[in-house]
Amino acid sequence: MAIKITTPVPNDTIASLKAGDAVLINGIIVTARDMAHKYLVENFVKTRNEAEAAVLEKLEGYLRNGIIYHCGPIVRKEGDEWRFVSAGPTTSIREEIYEADVMELFDLAGVIGKGGMGPRTLEGCRKNTSVYFHAIGGAGALIARNVKRVVEVIKPEFGTPEAFWVIEVADFPCLVTMDSHGNSLHDAVAAESKKRFEELLKG
C-alpha cells in the first residue's frame, strides 16, 4: 500500500521512508530543471545575491521541507489560468552537480525525477534527511491529471520548461529509490547488472 505524504514534509517522516516504498505526494511542489538549479546555486549558495533576495524568500515559502520536481512541463493558458497538459519527469542526473547544495539550501524533503542520481546526491540525502522519488517516465499526460492547479510561475523569463512552476498535486505517484539512510535502488540494480554481465563474459 502506498504511503501518503503532504508537503511540507517533516524530517521524521522522510527518515521513516525506505528505498522501495511507494508514495503518493499531496500539496505544493515546485518544478526546477537545469537553469533553475544553476540559478539557485550561483545566486544563493556560492554567494548571496541581494538583488534576487525577494525570489529566494518566495521560494523559501514553497520549498522549506518541500519537494522539487525535475520536470519541463507542457502547459496551456485557459483564460487567466495555466493548466498542465503534460508533466512527465526529466532525467535527473543532469542536476547531480547542484542537487546536494539545493537540498541543504531549502532543507528539502526530496526531489522527484527520472533515472536516479549519483553519489553526491545520495550523500546529500543522508546528510540532509532527504529522499529521491522516481516518477513514471513516458506518462506525462497521465501524471498531469494529478496536477490540480498552477499556484504561481517564478522566473517565467527562463522559458516554459526551465521556469519554476509552483503546482498543487494530489496523490502524485512515486517510488522512493534513494533514501536518507544511504540506500539506493539504482546502485543495487547497477551492481546486479555488473555481476550478471561479468558472469556472462565468463561463459
Structure description:
- With 203 residues, this protein is of the alpha/beta class.
- It has one domain: Fe-S hydro-lyase, tartrate dehydratase beta-type, catalytic domain (fumarase), CATH 3.20.130.
- Helix content is 36%, strand content 29%.
- It contains seven helices and nine strands, in the order βαβααβββαβαβαββα.
- The protein has helices spanning 11-16, 34-45, 53-63, 96-106, 119-128, 140-144, 185-202; strands at residues 3-6, 22-31, 67-69, 74-78, 81-86, 110-113, 131-134, 147-154, 164-178.
- The strands form two sheets. The chain has a five-stranded mixed beta barrel with strand order 2-3-6-7-9.
- Strand 4 and strand 5 form a beta hairpin.
- The radius of gyration is 17 Å and the shape is globular.
- The model has no long low-confidence stretch (mean pLDDT 92).
Compile the SSE list and pairings.
Blueprint: E1 3-6, H1 11-16, E2 22-31, H2 34-45, H3 53-63, E3 67-69, E4 74-78, E5 81-86, H4 96-106, E6 110-113, H5 119-128, E7 131-134, H6 140-144, E8 147-154, E9 164-178, H7 185-202
Parallel strand pairs: 1-2, 2-3, 3-6, 6-7
Antiparallel strand pairs: 2-9, 4-5, 7-9, 8-9
Helix pairs in contact: 2-4, 4-5
